[in-house]
Write a structure and sequence with these properties.
With 78 residues, the protein is α+β, with helices and mostly antiparallel strands. It has helices at 29-33, 48-65; strands at 3-5, 8-10. Helix content is 29%, strand content 8%. The chain has a two-stranded antiparallel sheet.
Length: 78
């Protein structure tokens, strides 16, 4: 599972299931337990459900910001 600590993304294990189900992503314990406690820019989130929701949103945003290398020009108009 990807873990976001500050602005770094670490990839570990994600289990993908059949197309009708959502992927089973384990709870990001290491990110939850390593939150900064008295940091002025980072709010400490003690509710695990809220932490997971915010974590997943930040993970999705980081994936969408990531640019993949282009393999050449493609003509999609045909």
């Amino acid at each position: 599972m990807p873990e976001v600590l500050s602005n770094q993304v670490h990839f570990t294990h994600i289990t993908i299931v059949s197309s009708g189900e959502l992927p089973k992503v384990p709870f990001p314990w290491s990110a939850f337990l390593s939150q900064p406690i008295f940091h002025p820019k980072h709010k400490l989130i003690l509710n695990p459900t809220v932490f997971r929701q915010i974590y997943q949103v930040r993970l999705l945003e980081s994936c969408l910001r990531k640019q993949l290398p282009s393999t050449g020009s493609r003509n999609l108009s045909s």
